[in-house]
Each structure stands twice: as C-alpha cells, then as structure tokens.
Design a protein that fits this description.
By secondary structure, the chain is mainly alpha-helical. The protein has five helices and no strands. The chain has a domain of 48 residues. Helix 1 runs antiparallel to helix 2. 4% of the residues are buried.
Amino acid sequence: MAEQAAGELAASGMVTADGKVSPWFTIHQQATKALSNLALRLRLGPQSRALKAPKRRAQPLSYFEIMELEGGTSEEKREGGAE
C-alpha cells in the first residue's frame, strides 16, 4: 500500500490540480506509520533485536573478600604485616 501510494505521488505529485494535498499523501503517511508500528511490535528493528541485560544486584561480600580488600588477614596484622 505504501509503495503504491509512493508511486502515485511520484507520478502525479503531492498537490492536485485544484491546489489541495493529494489523497495519496495521506494514504502513504498512514501506511508508513502502520509499518513502523508493526516493525516495533514484531521486533524487526535493531533496537528490538538487542538483548537486554538482566538486572542483577551485587551480592554482599564475604568475610574473606572483605579481608582481602582491606589488605590481609587479621593474623597478618597481629604479626606485624605480611612479608
């Protein structure tokens, strides 16, 4: 439908002989809008094809991970640091 309307617009122009907008312009506009909406719903566009990353919350750190981030274990601190 949109292609046919585009062909008619190319052949006869966007304005009729009496100075009004061609009815094919409205048909083309509506058909193009419908195609765009269908493409989104059918996931045909590049935005729709991209996978969305799952939302994950960071897990709380374990005791050993916290100690590693702080720079060693409590035994190493009591002995005077790691060598």
